[in-house]
Amino acid sequence: MKKILGFCLLLLLFPLGVSWASNGQMIIEIGEATLDKKKIIFQKPYLAEKFNVFETKLIKEFHSIFANDFSFYKKSFFIIDPENEPVSDFDDKNFELWTSRQFKFITRYLFKKNIKKGAIDFKVELVDTYNKSVLISKKGHFYSRNLREKAHALTDLIFEKIENAPSIFRSKIIFVSDMMSKGSKKVKELFSVDFDGRNLKRLTYHKGIVISPSVSSDGKKVLYTLIRSGKGRKNLNLYSMNLKTRRQSIISSRKGINSGAIFTSDGSKIILTLSHTGNAEIYEVDLSSQQLRKITHHFGVDVDPDLSKDGKILTFLSNRSGKAMIYLADPSGKEKSVKRIGFVGQFNATPRFSPEGSEIVFSSWMDNSFDIFKIKKDGSQIYRLTKNFGSNEEPSFSPDGEFIAFSSLKLKKRSRKLSVQNIYIMDRDGGIKGQITRDIGYCTTPRWYNPPKT
Questions:
Q1: In this structure, are 124 and 186 located in the same domain?
Q2: Residue 263 has pLDDT above 60, yes or no
Q3: Residue 379 sits in which domain range?
Q4: What is the pLDDT of residues 403-422, one digit of tens each?
Q5: Which residues pair with 423 in a beta bridge?
Q6: How many Å apart are CA 110 and CA 125, to the nearest integer?
């Protein structure tokens, strides 16, 4: 009876669709629950003096970033449109008016010209109207070149003050695009973009094929595999790049595959797929000594490793069952505690742990396309996150674990042959938040990270 009541309660909280994997796993298609939200308003800017057209445009852009950033967390915040609200004095302390309208948090802005620096001075405050207190008061200045960086840093500060948890507002997404290709010559390079799709930067200039990027936990380095252009036999060599200096170096150039590499949490070792002995196996490489240690040892092909945050669980793909499916292993030994947890679809791809390590997100081929799924690390529950949204692959959790970046392939309208692949963001329950790339070629393998704080 208790089990029946529990399942009924689950149905009330989430509109569910249910199907079944080949091993009898229940696949849950989840909707959005109704949650209590905090009302917040980002007040119209208070201008201490008259600004010219260009300066006014910069102030508007700076201000708009706050509401846009918080709109990604609509499950937690109800954002009040400031257009219908009067512009009050910056130091207005009419808490009763705000609380009577249930405005829990007010963010207010004061702007002045900084003639000496050729910049715009700001003062931003976060006010808790219920407790009649100023939670944050920050002063600074910005130029057009660092406007977005300054604004995202402030929204991150405000979010963390309210939620006592990190946000995605400073985060970036690394991905691969073929936008530099010309005619039949395919070129795939590494790019980065802010989480909201702005500030696109090209990171590599190899004029070859870059695949399988992965960022270190401190956000300072990226690993990727390069297939050089030109004639002759192509080796899949592994590179490391410092994201600040853009300095690159070859980490592994053993014969065959050197790919799918990830850093361990302390950055001293990497785990990757090597095929120099003939079969593709997963190894650990000490970056100081270059000493190899084999983790998998099987006649099947083992690829796409990823580690839990504590380093105690490895997830990877293997065709040892006859088709590519997700497996787990203890990376401290060889073929230690190997367990298959993937059973959904015809085959799986690109498993990635959530930041806290309790879930794995992956793509699976079913219904003639790829879709994104989420599974508990022990394989006990599986959730389908995408359906009827093109072909969706290569998921990657945001640093806070609340969102997932993925690539989605869609046919163009009025065409059965032309298609486009872009990077999208959804929340951890499958709610699509927006498109991140647009008209910059086929975009693949998004990997989400936080750059170091400056």
A1: no
A2: yes
A3: 173-449
A4: 999 999 987 665 555 688 99
A5: 407
A6: 9
